[in-house]
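An instance as discussed:

___
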Amino acid sequence: MKSIWVVDDDHSIRFVLEKALAREGLPVRTFSSAREMLATLDEEGPLGGGPQVLVSDIRMPGGSGLELLAKVKARLPGLPVIIMTAYSDLDSAVSAFQGGAFEYLPKPFDLPRAVELIRRAQEESQREAVVEEGAAALPEMLGQAPAMQDVFRAIGRLSQSHVTVLITGESGSGKELVARALHKHSPRSEGPFVAINTAAIPKDLLESELFGHERGAFTGAQASRRGRFEQADGGTLFLDEIGDMPFELQTRLLRVLSDGQFYRVGGHSPLRSNVRVIAATHQNLEERVRHGAFREDLFHRLNVIRLRLPALRERREDIPTLARYFLQRSATELGVEAKRLSEAALAGLTTFDFPGNVRQLENICHWLSVMAPSQMVELKDLPVELQQAPGSAPTGSLQSLPGLTPEPVPGAPAVAPLPVAAGHLVGGDSWLTEMAADARRRLLAGETEVWEALSRQFEAQLILTALDVTRGRRIEAAQKLGIGRNTITRKIQELGLDV
């Protein structure tokens, strides 16, 4: 197992991180300077004893963390690098991101947060390693469903084309896989495939990410940097979540697509772009055009050929094949024997709607590889949200209790009932387990505002239970809950409770 490498000239920082990571069972090596770390990397070779994650201070004698970041990224482009910096050093933080850092860690840092961040970087490193090792042997895409066969046929028809393609489909349905397949089977297959999620990059950094920048173009730009258009020269640039691109950047993108030229941020010389653009979105771009959030001329530039990727619930016959594939891949990643699905567990997976699509199924299979108690996965081993029949209310939920169903508030987001174990409306910890399962389902499905949704359910349950105990007497219910009578009245109105 590769180790976490920590580079800092401060002995106390090295000592604290080394002990904290060791307690978590993570191997760690420490270095007092960038020069020492690079020398070790040269001796051992990146394919042998290189790091799984690099954590480096930003200011050290004999070479800064940003210089180290650039050198390491040149050798190990997939290595997650965490840069440590002072709270006030925001320019350095921006420069760290510009240089490809995984994340930056402000000093003084909270130790548990630092360990959690390093763990996330380690998981990212493991995912990258699996992708790189298995890319040649594993299938690009799986699917026997007619809807997927239509996608495969479209990829085949486009195999000799340079045309711009717009891929639509729900989040988690595999749009990047389609983009990679389009690139692989195109005349540009020998060129680079460069992907960027326009929704995941801060607005202030996105322009530089796309078009690059010149030295001194903004605070922290210590050197010139090539953008994604330059990196993808001769190949394919995949713009994911194009519907979230800021409006002012849409104009620059349109100009590149129109005349094939662009300028780096702070640059004065035009650069030529020999790039095929493939864009993807889960949003309705026509609707965003009507609302003035997306340029109509850019939409028509992108919408030359449109491929719609079906949701997983539209291709249920593919779920068994995909599940077995993801279980095998997780087992390879974890170095264990692959779990197998019983007929009942397979039926449970097949009947679930998977709001998070293929990505959610992949996450569930990884969870089963770690958490299922035996090699044969039974129905009872599946996450709680998969064990319920489609469309039915979980046993003991608010929805199943007469007179305790919150009415929706006009204009408020829909709130599903909070599952609670029967007989445990208050007290015990089973309801917490059910709430955690509900939260997990929502988070895996990519929902937003999960905090708000579950908080509303929690408040509604408390108020309705107190009113049930006090036979509807609001003042007494408020006293028992420890809140004011005006508060309970306001909450009843906000939550739209029918009491």
